[in-house]
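We give the chain.
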Amino acid sequence: MSLPPFADRLTRWQRAHGRHDLPWQVTDPYRVWLSEIMLQQTQVATIIAYYQRFTTSFPTVADLAKASLDDVLAHWAGLGYYTRARNLHKAAQKVRADFGGVFPQTAAQIETLPGIGRSTAAAIAGFCFAERTPILDGNVKRVLTRWAGIEGFPGEKKVESRLWQLAEDLLPEQAADMPAFTQGLMDLGATLCTRSKPACPRCPLREDCRAHIEDRTAELPTRKIKKAIPERETVMLLIQHEGKLLLERRPPTGIWGGLWSLPQADSPATATALCHSRFGLVVDTGDALPALVHTFTHFRLTITPLVLTVRDESARIAEPDSQWFTRGEALKAGIPTPVRKLLQAKPRPQADLFS
């Protein structure tokens, strides 16, 4: 007796056992899009509060389009990968300019928006408009790799192309099944077909899953060969004057692009000279606070925070894109996670800002 098609088993399982209470499980493409972008590199439990705050402040794509980038980044602060937030803002403005403020309804059109790749565009089109088009995020790669017994690192172009073709071949025949099918793939990877200790006995695909049959779930997907993470160091300058802290806006691209952050020096020895040459400030050096280690995708950064107090009463900043913030103002702005941790640290000697 032959098994029901892959799509039939998956959609039946999703409707009976899948997730149905996530706040972005709606038909509004703006909210689905926002959740898909937030979920990139970030766990569901982490983003729920961010999603709710974001949609309260920017309930529609039109609201997001007319918001300032500063406000958008402030709502994103702490989620990391800030290019996502900048692209959200650009994409909302493109929807307003190119689509009359109406979110596009096909995967091909959606993919023209900044920051939206093929899989994200397909997910939005599948959830909101029942378009028959495949998705292939990290969870789906794991499900398909195991089910079909596909070897090789899924990030390699040859393996990924094979997975895209498989994902397309497995689509349900009826477009009406696309929302449940798409959600089912995501749910299966997130709840049963997990990276470690998959719950194979409860999986609707176990009867013809090659990894399960051959006891290879620990081997598949093939892992990427790990390289040593490069180490970098920097000194962050907490330049304070009359209860305020000097922050500067980061360049629009690169690490922490567009966020307000602390000025940086190569070493404590160069800090005072840098304050004078860049900002026109005469400062007294205080304590170096305990180092922070912040890990990015491709390197690990050791941060030495150095407290500096302005001696010049005028404290006029000679550098554009720099501004004095109170502690409360800084915490409400778009600031990187390490800076937020420093501002929330316990009081220390010579660190008036934290008291």
Observations:
- The chain has a mean pLDDT of 92.
- The radius of gyration is 24 Å.
- The first helix runs from residue 6 to 17.
- Strands lie at 231-241, 244-249, 260-261, 264-265, 283-288, 292-295, 300-310, 322-325.
